[in-house]
Amino acid sequence: MEKIIEVTSGKGEGLTELAAFDAALQDAGISNYNLIYLSSIIPPGFEAKVEKPTPNDKEFGHRLYVVMAQESTEKKGSKAWAGLGWAMRESGGGGLFVEHHGGSEGEVVKLITDSLNSMKSHRKEKYGEIKYEVVGIECKDKPVCALVAAVYKSENWE
């Protein structure tokens, strides 16, 4: 049975870009963790699935291992877009994540597909189709943030 890496997204606004980031973390269901950023490898035995994690108050302050893309802006009328893409190996398990951000959905999707296609071409293994999750928000009055995170696992500090 495959273990799940939850791919979650969120967007938010706040009085500062940092507050907007916190609001986006709240929206994504991962706000009360200490985030530890990982690079782009999906280990064998795991699969990525788009779903929001269920908040768990008992894990307040735990370490949370994530691959994350985020974009924020405070310029009125501009947009913040973030996305993660992934492709799984056709045999042997495992795969690749990429994270990108930009000012439009099309820009982020193109960056994701270009990066994964290039990464796949440099490897001897065959990879399946590219999947992705993107989210965006427009700045109206206050700073905004969009983020997508792949959540591997949480750990306490003991």
Describe the structure in your own words.
- The protein is α+β, with helices and mostly antiparallel strands.
- The protein has one domain (3-155): Pyruvoyl-Dependent Histidine Decarboxylase, Chain B.
- The chain has two helices and nine strands, in the order βαββββββαββ.
- The strands form two sheets. It has a five-stranded mixed sheet with strand order 2-5-9-1-4. It has a four-stranded antiparallel sheet with strand order 3-7-6-8.
- The protein is flat.
- The mean pLDDT is 96.
**Mean pLDDT score, rounded?**
96
Principal-axes shape call: flat
Beta-strand portion reads 35-45%
- The CATH superfamily is identified as Pyruvoyl-Dependent Histidine Decarboxylase, subunit B
Summarize the structure.
The protein is an alpha+beta fold. The chain contains 2 helices and 9 strands; from the N terminus they run E-H-E-E-E-E-E-E-H-E-E.
What does the secondary structure layout of this molecule look like, with pairings?
Layout: E1 3-13, H1 17-28, E2 34-37, E3 41-42, E4 46-50, E5 63-73, E6 79-88, E7 95-102, H2 105-121, E8 131-138, E9 144-155
Parallel strand pairs: 1-4, 2-5
Antiparallel strand pairs: 1-9, 3-7, 5-9, 6-7, 6-8
Summary tags:
158 residues; alpha+beta; Pyruvoyl-Dependent Histidine Decarboxylase, Chain B; five-stranded mixed beta sheet; four-stranded antiparallel beta sheet; 18% helix; 45% strand
